[in-house]
Task: inverse folding
């Protein structure tokens, strides 16, 4: 018996199961597999420990850190709005912008500028959404630790997928994005 003009496994290789061996009837839906979101689902979006305090204790690759400064650092958002969505965080666990030191604010601003330049160079961005949600009522996902969003935007990035399907299609894996941004990030001597 064949699946159309080809025999089963002809292109898939030996030992590969045919879809006809599975229960159910194929449907017209495409699947986007996002296993990295399980942490968010399992914790209800609220991890036990502050992820922005934990991240700097790990390697840059593990924590998706792109750059480190003296008072603040830059990492990829695990739940990005767009590919290259960065967060700029102070190392110190402080919740609000007006509680940050002058040194922290200065470095957050400089790292944000560098993030913009690097994203334009690496990803050809057309614009940015930059901002902070201060407090849970204002939409902060992690309200206890100050962080600024740097969201790259392109003229062609808007579509109805997020509105209708409540799904964001991200064309590049987080590790790949981190590696390309970290490689292009200017080195400070």
Result:
């Amino acid at each position: 018996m064949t699946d159309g003009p080809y025999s089963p496994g002809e292109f898939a290789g030996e030992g590969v199961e045919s879809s006809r061996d599975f229960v159910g009837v194929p449907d017209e839906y495409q699947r986007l597999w996002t296993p990295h979101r399980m942490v968010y689902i399992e914790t209800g979006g609220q991890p036990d420990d502050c992820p922005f305090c934990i991240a700097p204790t790990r390697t840059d690759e593990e924590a998706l850190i792109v750059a480190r400064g003296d008072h603040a650092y830059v990492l990829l958002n695990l739940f990005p709005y767009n590919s290259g969505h960065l967060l700029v965080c102070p190392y110190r666990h402080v919740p609000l912008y007006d509680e940050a030191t002058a040194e922290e604010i200065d470095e957050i601003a400089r790292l944000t500028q560098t993030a913009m330049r690097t994203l334009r160079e690496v990803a050809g961005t057309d614009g940015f959404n930059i901002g902070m949600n201060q407090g849970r009522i204002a939409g902060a996902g992690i309200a206890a630790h100050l962080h600024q969003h740097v969201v790259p935007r392109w003229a062609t990035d808007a579509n109805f997928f997020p509105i209708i399907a409540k799904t964001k299609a991200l064309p590049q894996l987080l590790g790949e994005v981190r590696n390309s941004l970290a490689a292009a990030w200017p080195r400070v001597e």
User: Anything to note?
Assistant: The domain at 32-184 is CATH 3.30.428.10 (HIT family, subunit A). The longest strand covers residues 148-153.
